[in-house]
Amino acid sequence: TVTARYQNFAAFGAHVDEAGLAALLADPRVRTVEPTRMAELHDVQGLALMKGAAPRTSYPGANMTIAILDSGVDYNHPMLGGGGFPNAKVVSGIDTSLTGDADPIPVCSAHGTACARITSGNITTVCDYNGGIAPDTRIAAVKVFPNNSGTTTFEDVAEGMDWCVTNMNLVPAH
């Protein structure tokens, strides 16, 4: 049973039984077969660990969009556009997880929002936050983790990457 098809990669995801696996391995068009792997969320203090505060003055990210493939991005966050989708900071996005909608807003996990703030958040001081590494960049929010889940399949991640390639010119100025 095919679980994922991609527009830009010569690959697919599928559930197979032993006979299906044997058929794939015997097919001369198949280069490799790999098991589905799971990805997990991990939180860290990004800006300080990456020593990103100094380089952001030289490379603020003007005219660039960064794709955040994660648990979603809260585009209502004041450091990430402050509301509405798309907005001035979160310029595009999609939900490729199993939630069944296209809205990349997170549910119960702020990991993707934290990553977006680390990369692209507006420069300000709120508690221990002082802005992103490249504050002038824009964000393509690609939600690949389902709601309320700390794990996702590599197929969902690949589908998010596939969406990024297909839509890389969605915002021509970036």
What would a concise description of this structure say?
This protein is α/β, with parallel strands linked by helices and 174 residues long. It is 21% helix and 18% strand.
Task: Describe the protein's architecture and organization.
- This protein is an alpha/beta fold and 174 residues long.
- It is 21% helix and 18% strand.
- It contains 4 helices and 7 strands; from the N terminus they run E-E-H-E-H-E-E-H-E-E-H.
- The protein is elongated and about 60 Å long.
- The strands form 3 sheets. The chain has a 3-stranded parallel sheet, with helices on both faces. It has a two-stranded antiparallel sheet with strand order 1-2.
- The mean pLDDT is 87.
